[in-house]
Design goal:
Elements (H helix, E strand, L loop, with lengths): L2 H29 L4 H14 L2 H14 L4 H19 L2
Length: 90
């Protein structure tokens, strides 16, 4: 397998894994809607996928459930910063 094909394969694998993580976390939230850890994991997966508005919403939900959870504060800040940059570039 060429280096380029190998890189494409890894990128495709990561994309599929990320989508699987999103779907899995959404299903868990149907059962445990107040799981801050699941909201955090979903927010991180959405952030990685570039779904910033959704990542912000999940991070805000984490902070509603557990206000002192600094990893969610970090994701929220990063996502909001990227949204502001995106809005500024329009």
């Amino acid at each position: 397998m060429s280096e380029s094909a190998s890189e494409n394969h890894r990128a495709s694998y990561r994309k599929n894994l990320n989508q699987t993580n999103i779907v899995s976390n959404q299903k868990v939230l149907e059962i445990e809607p107040n799981s801050f850890a699941t909201h955090y994991n979903l927010g991180g997966a959405l952030f990685q996928k570039g779904q910033l508005d959704e990542a912000i919403a999940e991070s805000q939900e984490v902070l509603r459930l557990k206000p002192d959870f600094s990893p969610a504060q970090d994701v929220l800040f990063k996502a909001q910063t990227l949204v502001q940059q995106r809005e500024g570039n329009k």
